[in-house]
Amino acid sequence: MMQSIIDIGSNTIRLAIYRIEAGRVELLLKKKQTVGLAAYIKDGVMQPEGIARAAAALQDFTAFLQEIGLPLTAAFATAALRNAVNREEALAAIKTRTGLAIRVLSGTEEAELGFIGATHDLAAPAVLMADIGGGSTELVRCDNRAVVAKLSLPIGSLQLAARHVRGLFPTPKESIRIAKDAENALAALDAPLSAAAEEPAGSPFSGPFPTLCGIGGTFKGARNLYRALYHSPGTPSPFPAAALDEMITRFSSEKALTENDLALFLKTEPDRLHTLIPGLILARALAKRLGVNAILYSDAGVREGFIYRELLKTTR
Fold it and tell me: Taking a C-beta distance cutoff of 8 angstroms, is the pair 225, 247 a contact?
């Protein structure tokens, strides 16, 4: 059985095609277009240009599916459309142009699906998962594979880049402003699990968490950049959270990058020139606040979680 899913994120729109046999999910093909929808939100409103770019990408993907004779299983959107005050108008306009009814995931639903997808095939159960997207950051805390708490924060890599960075890479001063913005947003992690309780039990995200399972573009970029810089073998082993500091410092400068550094970045993460370093600054703030020593990147995430929960009716 083959299934196709379109995921409309804040930075990229992706089409993924899977084969599902005997409960095993195999990724066959993944196509993406870097649209940067979060950058088209002005004063909370998704601009017509953003709607047009999203519709054009969706038309390309549906045309491809028609060519290979595979129907679309599902299409969903995350933070960029979720947070737009004109969300319903934008969805209606996209449906008029493409014929697609887009499902908008809530922040907590996105967090839960990401957790299911990321941890489904891990040998040891993860305790903490984070997904830094273009327009939001999702966190899930679990115990013995059971979700204890989930949280969606309205801050992401593309949003930070658009708000603070004037060039391709942030200057040291811009990096400081990004870090302050990140720390302000992460203050929400200090909230107790139940504000209504007579004696709050404290935050489920108080840490420390020695290892974090990271999904999404920022953590993928961090893993890839770490491998390129330190010649680390292509294994699924965790990389040290302390390496984020060196990567941020190396690519945040008042001066132009050296030819070698620019070549390395272009070879490693060409699609994240604007957004990766702001995302790494957010990841660093998150790691420091939660006491994270190592980060394990998982290539599976929300789309795979959607398949397990919505199609296969399982979470493990």
Answer: yes
How far apart, in whole angstroms, are the C-alpha atoms of residue 47 and residue 95? 16
- Take residue 256 and report the two structure tokens written for it: 């132009």
pTM: 0.84
Residues 242, 197 contacting (CB under 8 angstroms): no
Indicate if the pLDDT at residue 197 is higher than 60: no
User: CB burial class (10 A; 0-12, 13-18, 19+) of residue 256?
Assistant: exposed
Residue whose entry in the numeric block shows the structure tokens 């994270």: 292
Residue (of 56, 284, 259) closest to 183 by Cα position = 284
Place of tokens 């969903």: 76
How many CB atoms within 10 Å of residue 180?
A: 13
Positive or negative CA dihedral for 105, 295, 122, 269?
positive
SS3 content of the chain, % helix, strand, coil (to 5): 45, 20, 35
What are 256-273's pLDDT values in tens digits?
889 999 999 999 999 899
Cα–Cα dist 63/283, whole Å: 37
Copy the structure tokens of residue 51: 């709607």
Torsion of CA 87, 88, 94, 99, to 10 degrees: 140
Structure tokens at 257: 């990058």
Distance in Å from the first CA to the final CA of the chain: 19
276-300 pLDDT tens trace: 999 999 999 999 999 999 999 988 8
Distance CA 297, CA 223 (A): 7
Predicted confidence at residue 124, as pLDDT, reads: 65
**Are the C-beta atoms of 136 and 108 separated by less than 8 Å?**
no
Gap between the Cα atoms of 236 and 286, Å rounded = 21
Cα–Cα distance measured from residue 156 to residue 40, given in angstroms and rounded to the nearest whole number: 14
Q: Which residue has better confidence, 254 or 87?
A: 87
Q: What are phi and psi of 264, to 5 degrees?
A: -65, -45
Those residues whose C-beta lies under 8 Å from the C-beta of residue 234, and which sit 6 or more positions away, are: 227
